[in-house]
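Worked example

This section walks through a single chain of length 196. The input is the sequence exactly as stored; nothing has been trimmed or padded.
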Amino acid sequence: MDKPFDFETCRVLVRGLLESAPNCWQSWSTQLFGMLRLYLEHGYRLHVWDSRIAKQGVSNVHTHPWELCSLVISGELRNTRYVEREDGELFYGSSIQPGKGGGLRGNPMIYALHAKPVEVLTPGSEYRQTPEEVHSTGYVDGTVTLAKRVVLPGADPDRALTFWPVDSRWISAEPRASTEGEVRDITRYALSAMGK
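Given that input, the structure is written out below as tokens.
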């Protein structure tokens, strides 16, 4: 995937989107990993991360059905990649249909996943994920990221993998429509954290 971002241009555009968010709050969705999401053109999405909208007990260890490139506009993101390894932590894993109306699509299997060192990403940092990479996302509240997703030829855009610790149960993080209050409060907080 070509380098899709120019940081300063993106920062100005994103600030404008956040400032206008309360006026078009119906365009936003709430992803229960803890982020507001706004779909833009050409495969771009704006994410505003906030733990107040994370569903308690949700595991966000997962893969994507597409290639992903993400730019941190403000705040701090912590990306952890996992590899299968015999001495890894035990997780259940299952195929999932991501997005609204999705859910588990297979019988869970046990995986041993080893967490690689955490990648700490600050404003201007980019990271990429290939569809087969297992990862989880941590964040500081108010973090804003701009992501571009590309569905590769032959890939199934409606299939990913989700993982959760074997001593817990799977909890859906299915997205839902955002409320006016969520969009107003969370984008206002993100703007204040972004500064000038």
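What to look for: Residues 7-194 form a domain with the Jelly Rolls fold (CATH 2.60.120.10).
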